[in-house]
Design goal:
CATH class: Alpha Beta
Number of domains: 1
Radius of gyration: 15 Å
CATH architecture: 2-Layer Sandwich
Number of strands: 5
Length: 146
């Protein structure tokens, strides 16, 4: 089993604004860091694979991300024990707080590639029903298998 991770964020300004420039400029660095991390499995890429390809339904402020990891531990190490931490310390400069859960995790069969639509469905379920086997949050140790 592998772990899928889907997250959303609301940008403080559109991605082409000066405020968001450092975030957009660091996307390639963050993605390269993720892809070179132990336990990284897969992430969807568009033909453009630019910042605007991560907008949700064309909303100029909402971005989404999906990735697959070998384990929760591998994902945790990337999120909290790599240079990702240093970049995301600036998150408050780029993102508005959300009043809803913004990260959903769920287990998938090895080699399965979930869709963004599936990620949206899992996150909505988590926001509505709380942690379950269908979707759980980053801090829900009850569902961590590794």
């Amino acid at each position: 089993m592998e772990i899928a991770e889907y997250d959303i964020a609301r940008c403080v300004e559109p991605l082409d604004s000066l405020v968001m420039k450092d975030f957009v400029d660091n996307l390639d660095t963050v993605f390269a860091l993720a892809e070179s991390s132990d336990g990284f499995v897969w992430r969807p890429k568009s033909d453009e694979d630019d910042a605007e390809s991560y907008l949700i339904d064309g909303d100029p402020l909402m971005v989404e991300n999906l990735s697959v990891w070998a384990s929760v531990t591998a994902l945790h190490n990337f999120l909290y024990r790599s240079n990702h931490v240093n970049i995301m310390k600036r998150g408050k400069d780029w993102f508005s707080p959300l009043s809803v859960t913004k990260v959903a995790l769920w287990y998938i069969e090895d080699a399965y590639q979930p869709t963004l639509e599936e990620g949206r469905e899992r996150l909505k379920h988590l926001q509505t029903h709380g942690d379950s086997e269908f979707a759980f949050g980053l801090h829900s140790r009850d569902y961590f298998a590794d």
